[in-house]
Amino acid sequence: QERSELASRLLSDSERIVELDPLTISPSAIPDRFGGAYSEQALAEIVESMKQRGQIVPGMVRPFGAPGNFQIVYGRRRLAAAKLLGTKFKAVVRELSDEQAVILQGEENAERADLTFIEKCVFASAQETFGFRRDVICSSLSTTKSHVSEMIKIASAVPVDVKNAIGPAPAVGRGRWLALSEGLENADALKAVQEICASTAFAKLDT
After folding, report:
1. Fewer CB near the last or first residue (10 Å), C or N of the chain?
2. Can you tell me the distance from the alpha carbon of 108 to that of 120, in angstroms, rounded to the nearest whole number?
3. Which of 115, 87, 94, 104 is nearest to 22 (CA)?
4. pLDDT value at residue 130
5. What distance in Å separates the CA atoms of residue 52 and residue 62, rounded to the nearest whole number?
6. Which H/E stretch holds residue 122?
7. Given the DSSP bridges, would you call strands 17-20 and 59-63 parallel, antiparallel or unpaired?
8. Opening angle at CA 111, ends 109 and 113, nearest 5
9. Is the pTM of this model over 0.70?
10. How far apart are the C-alpha atoms of 1 and 115, rounded to whole Å?
Protein backbone atom coordinates (compact mmCIF):
# COMPACT_ATOMS: atom_id res chain seq x y z
CA GLN A 1 0.00 0.00 0.00
CA GLU A 2 2.82 2.40 0.92
CA ARG A 3 4.62 1.69 -2.38
CA SER A 4 1.40 2.16 -4.34
CA GLU A 5 0.68 5.49 -2.66
CA LEU A 6 4.23 6.70 -3.30
CA ALA A 7 4.07 5.71 -6.96
CA SER A 8 0.70 7.44 -7.32
CA ARG A 9 2.04 10.63 -5.78
CA LEU A 10 5.10 10.62 -8.02
CA LEU A 11 2.91 10.35 -11.09
CA SER A 12 0.25 12.79 -9.92
CA ASP A 13 1.62 15.52 -12.17
CA SER A 14 1.81 13.18 -15.19
CA GLU A 15 5.56 12.81 -14.74
CA ARG A 16 7.31 10.07 -16.63
CA ILE A 17 9.46 7.38 -15.09
CA VAL A 18 12.78 7.02 -16.92
CA GLU A 19 15.62 4.51 -16.63
CA LEU A 20 18.99 6.11 -15.95
CA ASP A 21 22.59 4.94 -15.74
CA PRO A 22 23.42 5.04 -12.00
CA LEU A 23 26.84 6.46 -12.84
CA THR A 24 25.21 9.68 -14.10
CA ILE A 25 23.59 10.31 -10.70
CA SER A 26 25.50 12.23 -8.02
CA PRO A 27 24.85 11.76 -4.29
CA SER A 28 22.86 14.27 -2.26
CA ALA A 29 24.91 17.04 -0.69
CA ILE A 30 23.03 16.46 2.58
CA PRO A 31 23.70 13.07 4.23
CA ASP A 32 20.83 11.45 6.10
CA ARG A 33 22.32 8.05 6.92
CA PHE A 34 25.57 6.69 8.26
CA GLY A 35 27.91 5.31 5.59
CA GLY A 36 27.32 1.70 6.64
CA ALA A 37 23.71 1.95 5.42
CA TYR A 38 25.00 1.66 1.85
CA SER A 39 27.36 -1.29 2.35
CA GLU A 40 26.78 -4.47 0.38
CA GLN A 41 25.80 -6.27 3.58
CA ALA A 42 23.25 -3.60 4.59
CA LEU A 43 21.75 -3.61 1.09
CA ALA A 44 21.52 -7.41 0.79
CA GLU A 45 17.74 -7.55 1.25
CA ILE A 46 16.90 -4.78 -1.20
CA VAL A 47 19.42 -6.15 -3.73
CA GLU A 48 17.78 -9.58 -3.56
CA SER A 49 14.32 -8.02 -3.93
CA MET A 50 15.37 -6.00 -6.98
CA LYS A 51 17.12 -9.02 -8.45
CA GLN A 52 13.92 -11.06 -8.27
CA ARG A 53 11.22 -8.44 -8.96
CA GLY A 54 13.04 -5.44 -10.37
CA GLN A 55 12.79 -1.93 -8.96
CA ILE A 56 9.13 -1.58 -8.00
CA VAL A 57 9.20 1.97 -6.60
CA PRO A 58 10.96 4.68 -8.61
CA GLY A 59 13.29 7.18 -7.00
CA MET A 60 13.51 10.87 -7.80
CA VAL A 61 16.39 12.83 -9.31
CA ARG A 62 16.92 16.38 -10.47
CA PRO A 63 19.07 17.69 -13.35
CA PHE A 64 22.47 18.57 -11.91
CA GLY A 65 25.68 19.81 -13.50
CA ALA A 66 26.36 18.96 -17.12
CA PRO A 67 23.49 17.95 -19.44
CA GLY A 68 22.57 14.30 -18.91
CA ASN A 69 23.74 14.31 -15.30
CA PHE A 70 21.50 14.20 -12.25
CA GLN A 71 21.49 14.34 -8.44
CA ILE A 72 19.55 11.92 -6.27
CA VAL A 73 16.66 13.46 -4.33
CA TYR A 74 15.44 10.22 -2.80
CA GLY A 75 15.82 6.50 -3.36
CA ARG A 76 19.51 6.39 -2.37
CA ARG A 77 19.39 2.78 -1.17
CA ARG A 78 17.65 1.66 -4.37
CA LEU A 79 20.26 3.58 -6.35
CA ALA A 80 23.08 1.87 -4.44
CA ALA A 81 21.43 -1.51 -5.07
CA ALA A 82 21.13 -0.74 -8.80
CA LYS A 83 24.86 0.04 -8.88
CA LEU A 84 25.66 -3.28 -7.22
CA LEU A 85 23.41 -5.14 -9.67
CA GLY A 86 24.68 -3.23 -12.70
CA THR A 87 21.13 -2.29 -13.72
CA LYS A 88 19.40 0.95 -14.70
CA PHE A 89 17.82 3.10 -12.01
CA LYS A 90 14.14 3.99 -12.43
CA ALA A 91 13.37 7.54 -11.43
CA VAL A 92 11.16 10.55 -11.92
CA VAL A 93 13.13 13.58 -13.14
CA ARG A 94 12.01 16.88 -11.65
CA GLU A 95 13.44 20.40 -11.76
CA LEU A 96 13.97 21.34 -8.11
CA SER A 97 15.75 24.05 -6.14
CA ASP A 98 18.13 23.06 -3.34
CA GLU A 99 15.44 23.82 -0.77
CA GLN A 100 12.74 21.84 -2.58
CA ALA A 101 15.10 18.88 -2.98
CA VAL A 102 16.05 18.69 0.70
CA ILE A 103 12.41 19.01 1.82
CA LEU A 104 11.40 16.13 -0.48
CA GLN A 105 14.36 14.13 0.80
CA GLY A 106 13.17 14.70 4.36
CA GLU A 107 9.56 13.88 3.50
CA GLU A 108 10.57 10.48 2.16
CA ASN A 109 12.53 9.81 5.34
CA ALA A 110 9.48 10.75 7.45
CA GLU A 111 7.22 8.43 5.46
CA ARG A 112 9.59 5.49 5.88
CA ALA A 113 10.04 6.33 9.57
CA ASP A 114 13.22 4.27 9.68
CA LEU A 115 15.80 6.98 10.22
CA THR A 116 17.13 6.79 13.77
CA PHE A 117 17.22 9.77 16.11
CA ILE A 118 20.92 10.48 15.63
CA GLU A 119 20.60 10.20 11.84
CA LYS A 120 17.88 12.86 11.98
CA CYS A 121 20.18 15.02 14.12
CA VAL A 122 23.00 14.64 11.58
CA PHE A 123 20.55 15.41 8.74
CA ALA A 124 19.46 18.63 10.50
CA SER A 125 23.04 19.65 11.29
CA ALA A 126 24.21 19.02 7.73
CA GLN A 127 21.43 21.25 6.40
CA GLU A 128 22.47 24.08 8.71
CA THR A 129 26.10 23.70 7.62
CA PHE A 130 24.93 23.85 4.01
CA GLY A 131 23.21 27.16 4.76
CA PHE A 132 19.53 26.21 4.76
CA ARG A 133 17.12 28.38 6.75
CA ARG A 134 15.60 26.96 9.92
CA ASP A 135 12.10 26.89 8.42
CA VAL A 136 13.41 24.69 5.58
CA ILE A 137 15.09 22.34 8.07
CA CYS A 138 11.86 22.18 10.07
CA SER A 139 9.89 21.32 6.93
CA SER A 140 12.33 18.59 5.92
CA LEU A 141 11.96 16.94 9.33
CA SER A 142 8.30 17.86 9.96
CA THR A 143 9.12 19.25 13.38
CA THR A 144 9.40 22.51 15.34
CA LYS A 145 12.26 25.02 15.52
CA SER A 146 12.94 24.18 19.17
CA HIS A 147 13.25 20.48 18.36
CA VAL A 148 15.53 21.22 15.39
CA SER A 149 17.72 23.43 17.61
CA GLU A 150 18.11 20.61 20.11
CA MET A 151 18.90 18.08 17.37
CA ILE A 152 21.59 20.34 15.89
CA LYS A 153 23.02 20.93 19.36
CA ILE A 154 23.26 17.17 20.00
CA ALA A 155 24.85 16.49 16.60
CA SER A 156 27.42 19.23 17.23
CA ALA A 157 28.20 18.12 20.78
CA VAL A 158 28.98 14.50 19.84
CA PRO A 159 32.20 14.41 17.76
CA VAL A 160 32.10 12.81 14.32
CA ASP A 161 34.45 9.99 15.34
CA VAL A 162 32.18 9.08 18.27
CA LYS A 163 29.00 9.21 16.15
CA ASN A 164 30.58 7.04 13.45
CA ALA A 165 31.90 4.55 16.00
CA ILE A 166 28.47 4.18 17.63
CA GLY A 167 26.58 4.14 14.34
CA PRO A 168 22.83 4.66 13.79
CA ALA A 169 21.83 2.94 17.06
CA PRO A 170 18.20 2.20 16.12
CA ALA A 171 17.18 1.34 19.69
CA VAL A 172 18.49 4.61 21.16
CA GLY A 173 16.27 7.67 21.26
CA ARG A 174 16.51 11.29 22.28
CA GLY A 175 17.02 10.76 26.02
CA ARG A 176 20.28 8.82 25.90
CA TRP A 177 21.76 10.87 23.05
CA LEU A 178 20.97 14.06 24.99
CA ALA A 179 22.57 12.63 28.12
CA LEU A 180 25.67 11.62 26.15
CA SER A 181 25.98 15.05 24.52
CA GLU A 182 25.73 16.76 27.91
CA GLY A 183 28.22 14.37 29.45
CA LEU A 184 30.73 15.06 26.71
CA GLU A 185 30.90 18.71 27.78
CA ASN A 186 33.41 17.45 30.35
CA ALA A 187 36.84 17.29 28.66
CA ASP A 188 37.97 14.23 30.63
CA ALA A 189 34.77 12.38 29.78
CA LEU A 190 35.15 13.28 26.10
CA LYS A 191 38.71 11.94 26.05
CA ALA A 192 37.64 8.72 27.79
CA VAL A 193 34.74 8.17 25.39
CA GLN A 194 36.94 8.76 22.33
CA GLU A 195 39.49 6.25 23.64
CA ILE A 196 36.73 3.66 24.18
CA CYS A 197 35.25 4.26 20.73
CA ALA A 198 38.68 3.89 19.10
CA SER A 199 39.34 0.52 20.74
CA THR A 200 39.31 -2.73 18.80
CA ALA A 201 36.85 -4.29 21.26
CA PHE A 202 34.36 -1.45 20.72
CA ALA A 203 34.62 -1.73 16.94
CA LYS A 204 33.48 -5.36 17.14
CA LEU A 205 30.26 -4.47 18.96
CA ASP A 206 26.93 -4.11 17.21
CA THR A 207 25.61 -0.56 16.84
Report:
1. N
2. 12
3. 87
4. 86
5. 28
6. helix 117-130
7. unpaired
8. 65
9. no
10. 20
